[in-house]
Amino acid sequence: MLPLIALFIAAFAFGTTEFVIAGVLPEVAEGLGVSVPTAGYLVSGYACGIAIGGPLLALATGRVSRKALLIVLTIAFTLGQAACALAPDFTSMLLMRIATAVAHGCYFGVAMVVAVSLVREDQRGRAVAVILSGLTVSNVIGVPAGTAIGGLWGWRATFWVMCALGVVAIAAMLALLPRTAGAANRPAGLAREVRVLGRQQVWTSLILMLMLMIGQFGLFTYITPTLIEVTGLDESLIPIVLLLNGVGATIGVLLGGKLADWKLMPSLIAILFLQAVMLVVIYAVSPYPVPMIVAIVIWGGLNFAIGAPIQTRILAWTADASNLASSLIPSGFNVGIALAASLGAAMLNAGFGYRSLPVAGALAMLVAVAVAVASQAWEWRSRATPPLPAAAE
Q1: Is Glycosyltransferase found in the keyword set (predicted)?
Q2: What are the b/e assignments for 142-159, b being 16+ CB within 10 Å?
Q3: CA atoms of 224 and 244, how far apart (whole Å)
Q4: pLDDT tier at 341 (50, 70, 90 boundaries)?
Q5: For residue 145, what are the contacts with CB-CB under 8 A and spacing of at least 6?
Q6: Which of 72, 158, 249, 312 is close enough to 150 for a disulfide, judged by CB 3.0 to 4.6 Å?
Q7: Which of 222, 196, 215, 165 lies closest to 313, judged by CA?
Q8: Inter-residue contact 146 to 158 (CB < 8 Å)
Q9: Is 80 exceeded by the pLDDT of residue 188?
Q10: In this predicted model, which residue has the larger pLDDT, 234 or 83?
C-alpha cells in the first residue's frame, strides 16, 4: 500500500496544477498583462500537452526503468511549477504549462501500469482507483486550497506551493517505490504497441471513455450557469455544490475500484445505465434546488465510479504491450473533455438551453451501454482471455 501512496501524492500534485489554474485565472491574466480569454489558453494548452505529448513521451521512454521515469517526470513537474512561479510573460508561462502537461500525460500512463504491477490480479481495480483518487482529491482539497493561497498571497505563491508538493512526491517515490516497480512489463516494439489497440476490448473501452466524458463534461463545463439560471441557486452556494460533487466523486472512484475487482463488465454496464438514468433525473429535477443538489452529488459519484473499471479493462487487455495504451487513457479523457465542452457550446449556440445538456449526456450513456453489452457478448463468443504481462528481460 505504501508504494501506491507515493503514486497518489504525485497524482494529487499533477491534478491540482491542472485544475487550479481555473481558480486563479483572472489574477494570472492581470499579472501577465493579458486578457482572461487569452489566459484561458493555459487551460487548453495543458490539455493538448497531455493528449499529444504524453503518448509520444511514453513511447520514447519505453525502455527506461519505471521508477526512474516516474521520478524524472515528477522532477520535471516540480521544476515546471517553479518556472511558472517565475514566469515573466504569458508566452513563457504557456510553454512551461505545456511541458508540465507532457510529463503529466506520461506520468499517469506509467503510474497506472506500475500500480497494477504492485498488487494481486484481484486488486487491480483498487490500485487504479488509488491513482484516480489523486485527481478527485485534488479537486476537493488541492484546487480550493491553491485558489485560497492565490487570493491571499498572489497567484505565484500557488505555484510555489505546487513546487513544494512536487518535492514531497519525489521524496515519497524515492523512499517507497521498490526499485523493480513495473519491471515485469517488458517494453514492446512500436508495431506491437499499436497492434494491441486493435483488440476490441481496448478500442471499445476508449469509446466508453469518450461517451463518459460527453455524459460528464457536457453538463459539468456549464454547471455554474445551469445551477444559477435553471435551478435558481445563489452564486455563493455554487462552491459548496461543487465541493459536495467532489466528495461524491471521491467516494465513487473508490467504489468503482472495488466493483472492477469484483465483476468488472457487469458492474461497468450497470453503472453506465445508472448514469443515463441519473442524467434524466437531473433534467427532471433541475428547477428544484434540493433535489438538484442531491442529484449532482450522486451524478459525481457515478462519473468517477465508471473510470476505474474502464481503465482497469484497458490495462488488463494490453498487459503485454501497455506503454502506448496506458498513455492514451489520460489523452482520451482530455480529448473527450474538449469534445464535450464543444458539443455543449454548439447546443447552446443552436438555441438549446442549459437544461438540454443532461439529455445529450443521457443519450451518450445509452450509446455506452450498447457498446459495453456488445463488447462483452463479443468477448464471451470468442472466449478470449486477457494477455499475461511480457516477462522482464
Answers
A1: no
A2: bbbbbbebbeeebbbbbb
A3: 14
A4: confident
A5: none
A6: 158
A7: 196
A8: yes
A9: no
A10: 83
Give residue 273's identity as a one-letter amino acid code.
F
Mean predicted lDDT score pLDDT of the chain: 88
Could you give the C-alpha distances from 294 to 27, 71, 274, 304, 364, in angstroms and in order?
A: 33, 40, 15, 16, 22
The pairs formed by 143-151 with CB atoms below 8 angstroms and a separation of 24 or more are 143/16, 143/19, 143/20, 143/22, 143/23, 144/23, 144/239, 144/243, 146/16, 146/20, 146/23, 146/24, 147/20, 147/23, 147/24, 150/20, 150/23, 150/24, 150/27, 151/24, 151/27
DSSP letters of 171-198? HHHHHHS-TTTTTTSPPPPHHHHHHGGG
C-alpha cell, 292 = 438538484
- Stretch among 7-11, 266-270, 289-293, 303-307 having the lowest mean pLDDT: 303-307
Query: At how many degrees (to 10) do helices 238-262 and 264-285 cross?
Result: 160
Task: Give the pTM.
Answer: 0.81
pLDDT at 392 exceeding the cut of 50: no
**H helix intervals, the chain:** 2-23, 25-32, 36-39, 41-48, 54-60, 66-86, 90-117, 124-137, 143-153, 155-176, 190-195, 200-220, 223-225, 238-262, 264-285, 289-317, 323-349, 357-382
Q: Could you give the CA distance from residue 27 to residue 77 in angstroms, rounded to a whole number?
A: 22
Distance CA(7)–CA(2), nearest Å, equals 9
Please answer whether residues 314 and 325 qualify as being in contact, where contact means their C-beta atoms are separated by less than 8 angstroms: yes
Query: Computed from CA positions of residues 204, 360, 278, 12, in that sequence, does the dihedral angle turn out positive or negative?
Result: positive
- The three-point CA angle 316-322-324 to 5° equals 130
In total, the chain counts a number of residues equal to 393
- Mean pLDDT within 145-154: 88
Q: Cell 450498447 identifies what position? A: 370
Q: What is the pLDDT of residues 236-274, one digit of tens each?
A: 888 888 889 888 988 999 899 999 888 899 999 999 999
Alpha carbon distance 366, 353 (integer Å): 21
State the pLDDT at residue 184: 53
For helices 155-176 and 2-23, the axis angle rounded to 10 degrees is 170
Q: Flag whether pLDDT at 345 surpasses 90.
A: no
The CB density around residue 388, as the number of other CB atoms within 10 Å, is 9
Q: How confident is the model at residue 22, as a pLDDT?
A: 75
